[in-house]
Write a structure and sequence with these properties.
It contains six helices and twelve strands. It is of the alpha/beta class. It has two domains: 1-29 and 147-195, no CATH class; 31-144 and 196-228, Vaccinia Virus protein VP39 (Rossmann fold, 3-Layer(aba) Sandwich). It has a seven-stranded mixed beta sheet with strand order 4-3-2-5-6-12-11, with helices on both faces. Strand 3 (69-74), helix 4 (77-80) and strand 4 (87-90) form a beta-alpha-beta unit.
Length: 230
Amino acid sequence: MKLSVRAGYQGSGPGAITPDGCAVELYSRLPVGAEPDVVAAAVPAGVHVLELGCGVGRVTHPLLERGFAVTAVDESQEMLDRVRGARTVCSTIEDLDLGESFAVVMLGSFLVHAGDVEVRRALLRTCVRHLETGGCVLIQREGADWHADLPRERMDPSGFTLRIVSADSVGEGVNSVCAEYEFPDATWTQRFLSRPLTKEQFDAALAEVGLHAETYLTEDGTWVRARLAA
């Protein structure tokens, strides 16, 4: 079934574009960041990770190399076609119900900042629905002032430039963010909706679904380990 483009989300550039504006070829080019190291330091070795929004496997593949089992979920079959070595499931995160539980559920890519509050709640409920007793949820948050001091750009050592061009308010606490990725041979843009969350708002969002932030895993507060509230 072909998924329709989401309102407020769009992308441009060569190759397939997913419903939330992500370019498959772009994500295939992006280098691996610190995410696999963060995960490996936060959870027991070799556990089964449910990765929600895996994309092309940029984080999946390093986790597999570190000995983790991974069930990788994405709504784009074009993205999943690039994933190797993991069990893959094509589904929207909000609708996912595998009838299974996992030691670790990972919600990366700042998905917790979904502009639509009901979507955010559904994402977090999916995390809880698939969490085994004693397990944890790893959540990636936006950094402080991520929507401020724009435009800004960063030259990646691998040879491309990332620009956060703008983050314009569209009302009710939501911003329309425009990002640009410039490579020597191609340029991609992505526009998406993002709801900035203070620590207090983030904690309240977790509490709504029965989670609590156990610890912040990075100095900048962008990765959190959450567990079911007692």
